[in-house]
């Protein structure tokens, strides 16, 4: 119960300025799409969608990704980045 209260207190902000091109779809025709995809120009600035600790900053399947943990047990990942300017263990603010 306490975990659910902590997660519900997390405020998320869009990480880029741009339209959503694929929404969250864990079930159905696009089942397994556990994120939200935005359209933005290559090289556009990406903001932290939540304040928290960077738990991962590196590559996954050849793509640059960053994961932020705003509260223990809840993580937000940013993928398909052109570059990264944060490191694991760093605290970021939205």
Secondary-structure topology with pairs:
Layout: H1 2-8, E1 20-22, E2 37-38, E3 52-60, E4 63-71, E5 74-81, E6 91-92
Antiparallel strand pairs: 1-2, 3-4, 3-6, 4-5
How many helices? The count is 1
Helix content: under 10%
Can you tell me the residue ranges where pLDDT is under 50 for at least 5 consecutive residues? Answer: 1-6
Mean pLDDT: 85
Distance, first to last CA = 26 Å
User: In percent, how much strand structure appears in the residues?
Assistant: 35-45%
- Derived structural class: mainly beta
Largest sheet: 4 strands, antiparallel
Q: Assign an overall shape.
A: globular
How many DSSP E strands?
6
Question: What Rg, in angstroms, do the CA atoms define?
Answer: 14 Å
Strand order in the sheet with the most strands: 5-4-3-6
| Helix and strand sequence | HEEEEEE
Can you walk through the features of this model?
This protein has 94 residues and is mainly β. The chain is globular, with a radius of gyration of 14 Å. A 4-stranded antiparallel β-sheet has the order 5-4-3-6, with no helix packed on it. It has a two-stranded antiparallel sheet with strand order 1-2. A hairpin with a 2-residue loop joins strand 3 and strand 4 (63-71). The protein has one helix at 2-8, and strands at 20-22, 37-38, 52-60, 63-71, 74-81, 91-92. The model is unreliable at 1-6 (pLDDT under 50). Helices cover 7% and strands 35% of the residues. It is built from 1 helix and 6 strands.
Task: Provide key terms for this protein.
two-stranded antiparallel ribbon; disordered N terminus; 7% helix
